[in-house]
Design goal:
This protein is 37% helix and 15% strand. Strand 2 and strand 3 form a beta hairpin. By secondary structure, it is an alpha/beta fold. The chain starts with 13 loop residues before the first strand and ends in a 9-residue tail after the last helix.
Length: 186
């Protein structure tokens, strides 16, 4: 039996871990741009993220903290957590997303600025899917570029925080950093 599927060439990605006030973040980038940001990037969580990238890329990502592909993401995220960066100006590699997930994330990235929030339903309407709040929630949960593509800014219509892949305390901390919520007392 022959394999009729052409082999997809492996792509290189460089990665590093950035220490932040919300914990260690994995940053992975390709020649196209920032590919992945993952919370809690230590131990098993780091291995899972790297395994996912290996499966996607066809090759293991290379730990290269000083790679040119990571310089701008590292600088802008450091600036964000220091309160200096309010908008990201990074090239993004969207290849970990597709379809409605990518559409919703791209809309979020361009329409919900620093210090503001939107509702799941409102974002769904903006994507031309009234009644698609649950689909937006699924898209936000699949966001491979949290913080940079600010899914922490999407909240429930009744004012609840909703979910967050980095955990609700992380979501609260990011919203407090942006002045949307009071800074947690502890």
């Amino acid at each position: 039996m022959t394999d009729d599927c052409p082999e997809i060439p492996a792509r290189r990605a460089d990665w590093t871990v950035l220490d932040t006030p919300v914990g260690p973040l994995l940053l992975a980038a390709t020649a196209r741009g920032l590919l992945h940001v993952a919370f809690h990037a230590r131990g098993a969580a780091l291995r899972r993220a790297l395994d996912r990238l290996t499966a996607h890329l066809g090759a293991a990502p290379v730990e290269a903290p000083h790679a040119p592909s990571l310089a701008a993401p590292r600088e802008e995220l450091t600036g964000y957590f220091a309160g200096r960066t309010r908008a990201f100006h990074l090239d993004l590699d969207w290849s970990l997303t597709e379809g409605f997930t990518q559409e919703a994330l791209r809309r979020l990235a361009t329409s919900v600025p620093y210090g503001s929030v939107t509702g799941y339903g409102e974002l769904a309407r903006g994507c031309g899917r009234p009644g698609g709040a649950q689909a937006v929630g699924m898209a936000m949960g699949a966001n491979p570029l949290p913080v940079v593509v600010p899914c922490h800014r999407v909240v429930e219509s009744d004012g609840g925080l909703g979910g967050f892949s980095g955990g609700l305390e992380t979501k609260r901390s990011l919203l407090a950093l942006e002045g949307v919520l009071p800074t947690p007392l502890f």
